[in-house]
């Protein structure tokens, strides 16, 4: 498509990954982009991506991203002729849309009336019900007192859902199971609604059992053409906020998809909608053929990438084109859904602490890549993740020809992702996607609440400490040199000496001593004198030196790491560990730890073996004799145990080649 000719420059009135995503489309269309930022975001990615950037104010959103006069003035000062609000902040603010219009700026979104009607959930329900769109039974009368509202709600039947008329994100929502809870829920909902949205109007509706949250993407131009782009399943939520979304829904059949799509289009038509919007429905998992209108979001949605991937339609581009006056050049019959797409939202939060937001500095970063993988991100190394704004950092989206393939790709992409220095929900996302009900598409909005306590989060164990020590060992530059006299791997005449690491994992009190022998490519590791395991480490080739594969006792693990100031930041399967190297133990302590491996101290040949495979021997027993340059060297057991031979008489051996192991009784 040719670029829209009506916009020379567009100001993006937002931050984070959505600002970056909008700027990407502006750049592809040859439109100049203008970013805005607060003091907290002076070094943010969206600021550097844009062609121009304007400071709005302090980190306080009211002084920056919610400051309508300053944003409008920034657009005028930079020569922008349109404003894209993204989502959140002022995206659904009718006053902001009106301020843009009165200043001669095009607001890239619907008209003021559509924003106002759909921004009031009570008014919206009445509006769409009048057009035949099914709504959840309930009581929606802002004139009723609390006692009158409670009395009217009794006729609806329990369970009930008390909801604020303004706002979203689950704030102020309360499920009520019986009449004794109703008065308190109404009072709480009013207080929370007033605090969050400045409006204490609430309404009550039937709470749908086993609810599924399904939304439909619509596009409408200025000529009245309205189409839907299929639905998205958004049922995986925590605290009424979406975590994983997919398109299409695994619940709906083609007939229901057509019906719910037409209901969404009729909702948009009821307010003369233009641009991109989303109509949200509640559907019972027990009766998927029934759906009820919840609300309409008069903006782009966080989860819009899954729709883009299954339709091939750039929603931001069409927002721009429609705002510039262009008509849709396709109809409903031309919309085709191809394959399946699933999105996971990465948040700076700790799922094991009730999803409390976290912060910190991004010290290292590895983002997923590969076929069928898309990442919408605002992350850069060195970014300070502030608690001033929403904790979402990025979105990882996977497409495949079918749902199973998309799930597999997304799980793999999350395993590739590492954000070092900030606690995230990546491990939680991976565990959730592996849940058998999620894999089977048996979803509802309460699933996460039921599953959270059963998820198998990683814990500190000897394997983790061993891998950490091996990474530290490799990070210290211990490569295999040409000469043994240049080595720093503990080589000496006799058994190799161990390199010791005294490690402490953040959040734990105990310190563990981990011993490493050999080289990073061929090592032995022991924690607190426990039976040692063979180990190795190698860098992976598709990263910026941050990722490696460690093999411990035959099991391989992908890790991402950063080592600085005696602290190792280690990420495995999305779980972040902070491991401190407390001190290096004295050489005498290392000498006291017996290595079970007997390796050749030099190139040569095995000339004698004093024991049989499987024999039990005592510490100090002669095991193998190696001859080199007419000199013999006797390898003796450094611990009592059972012999495992790895060579025979006459074998030509290289320096450091494993010849035998003496496995201690505890490991035998």
Write the layout of secondary structure elements.
Elements: E1 9-12, H1 16-28, E2 32-38, H2 45-49, E3 52-57, H3 68-77, E4 82-84, H4 94-102, E5 106-107, H5 112-118, H6 121-129, E6 138-139, H7 146-153, E7 160-164, E8 174-176, H8 182-197, E9 202-206, E10 211-220, E11 226-238, E12 241-247, H9 254-269, E13 275-284, E14 287-297, H10 304-311, H11 315-323, E15 340-347, E16 349-350, E17 356-357, E18 360-361, E19 364-366, E20 373-377, E21 384-385, E22 392-400, H12 403-416, E23 418-420, H13 426-433, H14 436-440, H15 447-451, H16 462-475, E24 499-505, E25 512-519, E26 522-527, E27 533-539, E28 547-552, E29 555-564, E30 567-572, E31 575-583, H17 587-592, E32 597-599, E33 604-609, E34 616-617, E35 622-628, E36 631-636, E37 641-645, E38 652-653, E39 658-663
Parallel strand pairs: 1-2, 1-4, 2-3, 4-5
Antiparallel strand pairs: 6-9, 7-8, 7-9, 10-11, 10-13, 11-12, 12-15, 13-14, 15-22, 16-17, 18-21, 19-23, 20-22, 24-25, 24-31, 25-26, 26-27, 27-28, 28-29, 29-30, 30-31, 32-39, 33-35, 33-38, 34-37, 35-36, 37-39
Helix pairs in contact: 4-5, 12-13
Summary, kept brief:
This protein has 668 residues and is α+β, with helices and mostly antiparallel strands. It is built from 17 helices and 39 strands.
- Judged by helices, strands and strand pairing, the structural class is alpha+beta
Main sheet characteristics: 8 strands, antiparallel
Strands side by side in the biggest sheet: 14-13-10-11-12-15-22-20
Mean pLDDT: 89
The amount of beta strand, in percent, is 25-35%
> How many E-type strands?
39
State the helical fraction. 10-25%
Spans of at least 5 consecutive residues with low confidence: 479-486, 586-592
Number of helices: 17
Radius of gyration: 31 Å
Termini separation (Å)? Answer: 69 Å
Shape: elongated
